[in-house]
Amino acid sequence: MDVQTWTFILVGISFTLYIGIAIYSRAGNTKDFYVAGSTVHPIANGMATGADWMSAASFISMAGIISFMGRDGAMYLMGWTGGYVLLALLLAPYLRKFGKFTVPDFVGDRYYSSTARMVAVVCAIFVSFTYVAGQMRGVGIVFSRFLEVDINLGVVIGMVIVFFYAVLGGMKGITYTQVAQYCVLIFAYLVPAIFISILMTGNVVPQIGFGSEIKGEEGVFLLDKLDALSQELGFSNYTEGSKSTIDLFFITMALMVGTAGLPHIIVRFYTVPNVSNARTSAAWALIFIAILYTTAPSVAAFARTNLLTTINNTEYAKVPAWFKNWQETGLIKFEDKNNDGRIQYYNDKSKNSEFIAETKKRGWRGNEVIIDRDIMVLANPEIANLPNWVVALVAAGGLAAALSTAAGLLLVISTSFAHDFVKRTIKPDISEKGELKCARIAAGFAIFIAGYFGINPPGFVAQVVAFAFGLAASSFFPAIVMGIFYKRMNKEGAISGMIVGIIFTAAYIIYFKFISPEANTSDNWLFGISPEGIGTLGMIINFVVALTVARFTPEPPVSVQNLVENIRVPRHMGDD
């Protein structure tokens, strides 16, 4: 069977499974809709958290961006993994002990202010929409290639699926759907990685193959060959970085602390029965996440090596089928600039004078191929000539990763609106049935807006997600940390910090990415910090503003200070 038939079969089976679980786990009340009734087993919650965590950015884009950036791409691995550890150890148990459904609920009660709650609601919605844009784009990419439909139609199909199980099942339906999605996505990620590792290095474990000799080339290690290929084509050595140390640090830190402030991950720790289970599920989630994250560098190296050896200086008439398949989606573009019928793929912006002279001698007139980084993981099995069912399996895994995170984000948006805005602010007397209806309507509207962002994305999936993490770092993280560990922090300080932090970060990103993209160079960046890393500086500004304002304004009420003491004391760890 061809790839498209296999894709219809595997994607159809997985979608049927997701919808069936949503129907079976339909939410009957607000607690089911918001936190799955707080009855989820820690292992199941760990798998659901892993699926929620490993979005399209992790599954589709992370290895792709590492394959192009080389060593610099490790900042995504370090930032996201370190961020999860930070969240699991520093924040999750305390927030679970506090006992509220949402981050805005925590902020509103901890800072005894409806204004603080509303600022948190706006931040949660802003961050979630930025993040969900990357997920919907990932859905569109998968559909456009493997089901051979327009990328925009692919986004619409994804919207319909998410609408069904997110609106119907709420957190209860999403949680058990995400357990199934984790199984699909991790199997889909590991199978081709193992196949390719065996083919290229003879090692069944990709993590070992990553540092092994190339099969049939004695004494030639994979990374050494990749460095040589990169040099030959004018790119930086794969194992060397080109980013400045300060930018690398700020991006990694933004990803790390942004992770700890992401509302759709934090809410997962409310779905288990008690604080002890929250800690246990956090440990399980780390294990499930590590399986993919430790495999990603090897997938990136395999994909980059195969890409460079497959297409460069190849006659277009003899180019492998995978190249033309992806070319039809518009995610690979080829222009024969010197009309020689061959593909020249190289770094035409290289500053190496010897390399420039060599390209002129060969008659090259500029790089002829533009490759969307988001296709690398999806195209990897095709590049390596793996069986069609493996190619289709990766498509099903990419959809599982994108849809699982999109559902979690959309739930955050709907609960922030229904619970924190409607129930806790404008209509406290709303019935539970009315609140549940409001949450479902909000989820429906959120899906349509998310679909728009998926059709009109602001960048690569991993880049879009990096922006979301920066916004979370500059807004939520300081308010949550100081809310837990600093009794003296008051509402005036927290509100001021959140507003200044997110406005500064958003303005910086919007200016360099949308208003003046031509100025987006290291020469124009503040302190040499790129838009992807500016969230760290926004976080620092948030802390400084919040602490300064709190210093000159009244202390929080004694009851609030006692509340802070209570959530920090590790007594009754099995209690709610």
Give a short summary of the structure:
71% of the residues lie in helices and 1% in strands.
Task: For this entry, give a set of tags.
576 residues, mainly alpha, Sodium/glucose cotransporter, two-stranded antiparallel sheet, 23 helices, 2 strands, 71% helix, globular
Explain how this protein is built.
The model has no long low-confidence stretch (mean pLDDT 81). The chain has helices at 3-24, 30-35, 42-53, 56-69, 74-98, 103-110, 114-146, 151-201, 206-209, 222-232, 245-260, 263-266, 275-293, 296-311, 321-327, 353-361, 376-383, 388-426, 432-455, 461-485, 491-515, 534-551, 558-568; strands spanning 332-334, 369-371. The protein is mostly helical and 576 residues long. The longest helix has 51 residues, at 151-201. The protein is 71% helix and 1% strand. The protein starts with a helix and ends in an 8-residue tail after the last helix. The chain has one domain: Sodium/glucose cotransporter. A two-stranded antiparallel ribbon has the order 1-2. α4 crosses α18. It is built from 23 helices and 2 strands. It is globular and about 75 Å long.
Helical segment tally? 23
N-to-C order of helices and strands: HHHHHHHHHHHHHHHEHEHHHHHHH
Question: Uncertain regions: pLDDT < 50 for 5+ in a row?
Answer: none
Q: Quaternary status of these chains?
A: single chain
Output the CATH class name.
Mainly Alpha
Category by helix and strand content = mainly alpha
Helical content class: over 70%
The total tally of domains equals 1
Distance between the termini: 53 Å
Tally of extended strands?
A: 2
Question: Main sheet?
Answer: 2 strands, antiparallel
| CATH fold group | Sodium/glucose cotransporter
| Strand portion | under 5%
